[in-house]
Amino acid sequence: MGDTKTPTIVSAIDLVVFVVVALALRGTWGHEGVSVAVFASTAVQAGLLALLASRKLGSGLGIWKAALGMTAAALVAAGAARGLEMGATRLIPSLIHGRFVDLVMLTAFAVVYGAFTWAIGLEDARTLTGAVARRLRKR
Fold it and tell me: How far apart are CA 19 and CA 30, in angstroms?
């Protein structure tokens, strides 16, 4: 399309949203606050780009369906990871910090996110799971 100014402006807005949300949540949520900030800024960026693309290209229903599905999946996955962390740290208080806990939370987020996007039928999730399944069958 030749337009480089609009994505640059949207990226600047994305950066501002990330910094504001990350700073606002860092004390309360710790490293999960950064995840929420990434989600918030990405949602703003995707929403703005989808809105602008649908105006230029016409129908953007597919873009909005995917964006809403990914948003819902990210919220569900973040809630699941947060709940898992809270439950684990109550059982074993020494797990409050550490790379192992971070890895477990990241894995939980990824699994729940992937399962949710697959379950609601997002095309990208189905394509990814199909590729992974084909790769595993080759072994």
Answer: 14
**Letter string b/e over residues 93-105, b meaning 16 or more CB atoms within 10 A of that residue's CB:** eeeeeeeebeebb
User: DSSP labels for 57-120?
Assistant: HS--HHHHHHHHHHHHHHHHHHHHHHHHHHHHHHH-GGGGSSHHHHHHHHHHHHHHHHHHHHHT
CB 121 within 8 Å of CB 73: no
Model pLDDT for residues 68-113, shown as the tens digit of each residue: 888 888 888 888 888 887 787 777 766 556 677 777 778 888 888 8
Residue 47's contacts (CB-CB under 8 Å, 6 or more residues apart) are 67
Contact 80, 108 (CB under 8 A): yes
Please state whether the predicted TM-score (pTM) of the whole model is above 0.70: no
Alpha-carbon distances, residue 67 vs 3, 94, 128 (angstroms) = 22, 38, 17
